[in-house]
């Protein structure tokens, strides 16, 4: 697969769907000693003003681009009804009940207006970062989404709380992780487990038993057929595959969806002391399984060479 030339040397492709949740989360109330106040074991928040939410958004992006030492970037957002929701109306339907934070739509518009975020109707942000990564030279993904960090091969910047470093995911491990998700489903996205009793450990054992095929996805198909019969096994496997598989190449685009690689935005990476927002924003509640409650690394740890690309 030929990649589009890139005049930059280190382009960050950012899955920005979580930023509206991060920026809109309220400010923690502090007690007289300056410690975050808790009531019934939960932090107490006051609403942010719109300027505060915008500042949190910008500080976060400034910090993450500098920590990853990017020289350019493209942001991606999910918009409209995705092709997966058209295939299966229950896809992410469990998220409809989540109350969006204050200033959610204003921050999203700010990402479009100031940061030139890319939206493609029908595709999700994780599709867009993976698709662009596979067609643009000298690029890497910044994400906190486990589907990308576990199931997409390559070198990515792990933006989850307490990580903030580059990770390498080899091709076989990514395929194995994806095959496991086919068997277990994804409760966060409303994708059910279609085989009774198929938890992560059982799924791994079933895949490992069929490793003579040297293809974890084919092994997952055989598990479906073994448990559900040929007809139902094939149908349900195909449904899970369409819901869970990210779009990787242009020829995989669903009918009617068009996409073109956009020229990245220049970024002048500077050495910086990370903003206070960078260490506070992860306490927010988001509709995902990202471990937001983990403690951030210390500032000194973030400034080590571990966060730099090799």
Task: Sum this structure up briefly.
With 310 residues, this protein is an alpha/beta fold.
Characterization of this structure:
- The structure is a single chain.
- By secondary structure, this protein is α/β, with parallel strands linked by helices.
- It has 2 domains: 11-170 and 250-305, Rossmann fold (3-Layer(aba) Sandwich); 172-244.
- Helix content is 37%, strand content 12%.
- The strands form 3 sheets. Strands 1, 6, 7, 8, 9, 10 and 11 form a 7-stranded mixed β-sheet that branches. Strands 2-5 form a two-stranded antiparallel ribbon.
- α2 crosses α4.
Please report the first level of CATH classification, the CATH class of the largest domain. Answer: Alpha Beta
Low-confidence stretches: 281-310
In DSSP terms (H or I, runs of 4 or more residues), the helix count works out at 12
Shape: globular
Helix content: 25-40%
Q: What does the oligomeric state look like here?
A: single chain
What structural keywords apply?
alpha/beta, 310 residues, Rossmann fold, two-stranded antiparallel sheet
Topology:
Layout: E1 11-15, H1 19-24, E2 27-28, E3 38-39, E4 42-43, E5 45-46, H2 50-67, E6 72-77, H3 83-87, H4 104-113, E7 118-119, H5 125-133, E8 139-143, H6 146-151, E9 154-158, E10 165-169, H7 171-184, H8 200-208, H9 216-228, H10 230-244, E11 265-266, H11 276-280, H12 299-302
Parallel strand pairs: 1-6, 1-8, 6-7, 8-9
Antiparallel strand pairs: 2-5, 3-4, 6-11, 9-10
């Amino acid at each position: 697969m030929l990649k589009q030339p890139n005049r930059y040397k280190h382009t960050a492709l950012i899955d920005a769907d979580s930023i509206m949740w991060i920026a809109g989360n309220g400010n923690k109330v502090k007690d007289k000693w300056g410690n975050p106040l808790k009531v019934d074991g939960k932090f107490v928040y006051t609403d942010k003003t719109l300027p505060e939410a915008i500042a949190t958004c910008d500080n976060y992006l400034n910090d993450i681009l500098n920590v990853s030492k990017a020289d350019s970037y493209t942001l991606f957002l999910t918009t409209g009804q995705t092709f997966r929701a058209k295939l299966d109306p229950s896809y992410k339907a469990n998220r409809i009940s989540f109350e969006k934070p204050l200033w959610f739509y204003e921050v999203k518009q700010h990402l479009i207006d100031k940061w030139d975020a890319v939206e493609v109707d029908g595709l999700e942000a994780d599709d867009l970062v993976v698709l662009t990564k596979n067609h643009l030279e000298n690029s890497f993904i910044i994400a906190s989404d486990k589907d990308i960090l576990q199931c997409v091969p390559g070198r990515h910047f792990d933006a989850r709380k307490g990580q903030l470093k580059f990770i390498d995911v080899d091709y076989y491990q990514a395929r194995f992780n994806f095959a496991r998700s086919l068997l277990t489903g994804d409760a966060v996205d409303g994708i059910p487990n279609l085989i009774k009793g198929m938890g992560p450990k059982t799924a791994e054992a079933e895949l490992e038993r069929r490793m003579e095929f040297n293809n974890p996805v084919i092994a997952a198909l055989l598990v479906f057929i073994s448990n559900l019969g040929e007809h139902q096994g094939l149908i349900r496997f195909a449904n899970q595959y369409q819901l869970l598989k990210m779009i990787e190449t242009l020829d995989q685009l669903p009918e009617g969806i068009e996409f073109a690689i956009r020229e990245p935005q220049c970024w002048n990476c500077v050495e910086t002391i990370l903003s206070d927002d960078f260490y506070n924003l992860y306490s927010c509640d988001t509709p995902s399984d990202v471990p937001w409650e983990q403690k951030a690394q210390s500032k000194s740890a973030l400034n080590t060479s571990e966060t730099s690309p090799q």
